[in-house]
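User: Is it possible to get a 3D structure for a protein together with its bound compound? The compound here is adenosine-5'-triphosphate. I've pasted both below.
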Amino acid sequence: MKELGAAVYVAGLRKHYGDVKAVDGIDLMIAPGEVVALLGPNGAGKSTTVDMLIGLSKPDVGEIRVFGNEPSRAVAEGSIGAMLQNGTLLDDATVGETVAMIASLHRAPMTVSEAMRRAGVEEFADRRCNKLSGGQKQRVRFAVALVSNPDLLVLDEPTAAMDVGTRREFWASMREFTDAGRTVLFATHYLDEAEEFADRVVLMRQGQIVADDSVAKVRAMASGRTISAVLPDVPVEQLTQLPGVIDVARRAERVELVCADSDRTLRALLNAHPHVHDIEISAAGLEEAFLALTAKENS
Ligand SMILES: Nc1ncnc2c1ncn2[C@@H]1O[C@H](COP(=O)(O)OP(=O)(O)OP(=O)(O)O)[C@@H](O)[C@H]1O
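Assistant: Yes, that's possible. Here is the predicted structure of the complex:
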């Protein structure tokens, strides 16, 4: 079966908290070796999804497989490494002791020194975790996630507390990890970060996946416009060929064209189909979400 070969297979996943539809029916398949950004504004459902993927909470409904296994099994086998936003670190243990302790729980760990080197924590290996800055703690969490030598890394806003330099080092280290063919899923607010690092963007809003595509395509959708018009007799495939068009949907007599360049598309549309009428142009539906998403980082 297809899902057996997938790094991540999610079908019909749902998690509600009372009236809050934190995750509301998502399907997702990630192939081994893919680097996927889970993008969305505050409260979109990213953390809830990540928690279920790594077995920290159970879905109300739906199926999750990680390399063909239940999440808890994949975690126990060391095939998932996770880095959570506020993952607890033992205050009184040093960084080196913390990483070594986690390594001892796994069957085929990376060496402690290798994990510490990759995460850039060697220079404060002897410091206690409660004496670290927010960004340093994040790097220790990264070392902890790496040391099990996982095939899949799941990261929830990994760079949230990092300054620009640390962030750059972090992504360089991640690249070392993905160049070896490992799979990564990371949640972020930042389209820029997704663009630089991910192969693919899964955009969530209000518990649902509203886009799942290459970064370039999602960016175009976010900044583009939608042309809606009455055009009953032209096949969708033909409209997709018009210049500046990213996507086309038909609802009865009306077609909706998501455009990267609506001026160009409109000229071509009128030229090719002069009988088109009742034309409306609007900002693409994702724009609102992206206002939050693309909010510039402070740094
Ligand atoms: N344990 C919980 N009890 C009640 N509501 C919850 C719980 N966990 C999450 N929620 C709600 O579910 C929704 C989705 O939250 P989630 O943390 O998954 O979003 P997110 O996309 O990770 O947001 P952020 O970017 O702010 O971390 C939010 O409305 C949140 O308040």
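Residues 285-289, 292-299 have pLDDT under 50 and may be disordered. The chain has two domains: 2-217, 225-283.
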